[in-house]
Write a structure and sequence with these properties.
By secondary structure, this protein is mainly beta. The protein has 1 helix and 10 strands. Strands 1, 2, 3, 6, 7, 8, 9 and 10 form an 8-stranded antiparallel beta sheet that branches. A hairpin with an 8-residue loop joins strand 8 and strand 9.
């Protein structure tokens, strides 16, 4: 699969979705009704990293590093402020709630060939920690900045040709 640009990617918000003990799978998101957040300027970062745990082994005269629990970074989403956009309205409403919400990112990387090409997708749950309006100087677009605290694994769906 060749590299591709972020341009053309889309972010969707679904409904409240409870966390579970096991990792999420694609079927966990089947019942969602998705609303696109538009227009996007930046989607931010997603993925996992392990917490670093260090142990000073006196007898070995060495500090050892261990991997602790996994955590995703906070995803910083920037959209051009559109107070009539259903996705932005949903983000603002989700910020006022304590629940995790379903999210989907769709990339613009569907193959050019195949019987039914589909793009790559990422699914996860997150709490909407903030939904703030950025009102810079005169020659700037007003923006809605949202922080999504990802609380699950990423369910990765790769682009496919459909063959």
């Amino acid at each position: 699969m060749p590299i591709f640009a972020t341009a053309g990617s889309k972010l969707y918000i679904g409904g409240a979705l409870s966390d579970k003990a096991a990792d999420f799978v694609l079927a966990d998101f089947n019942s969602q009704v998705w609303v696109e957040v538009d227009p996007l300027e930046s989607i931010g970062s997603m993925g996992d990293s392990a917490q670093e745990i260090t142990f000073d082994a006196i007898g070995r005269n060495r500090t050892q590093t261990l991997k602790g629990t996994r955590r995703a970074p906070t995803m910083e989403v920037v959209a051009g402020l559109d107070m009539t956009d259903a996705g932005q309205i949903a983000l603002v409403a989700a910020e006022a709630q304590p629940h995790d919400y379903a999210f989907k990112v769709v990339f613009d990387d569907a193959p050019a060939t195949g019987s039914d090409p589909t793009p790559s997708e990422r699914y996860f749950i997150a709490k909407v920690m903030s939904a703030t309006e950025e009102l810079d100087s005169a020659n700037n677009v007003m923006k809605l900045n949202s922080s999504l605290a990802i609380n699950s694994n990423l369910v990765r769906v790769n682009a496919a040709t459909g063959d």
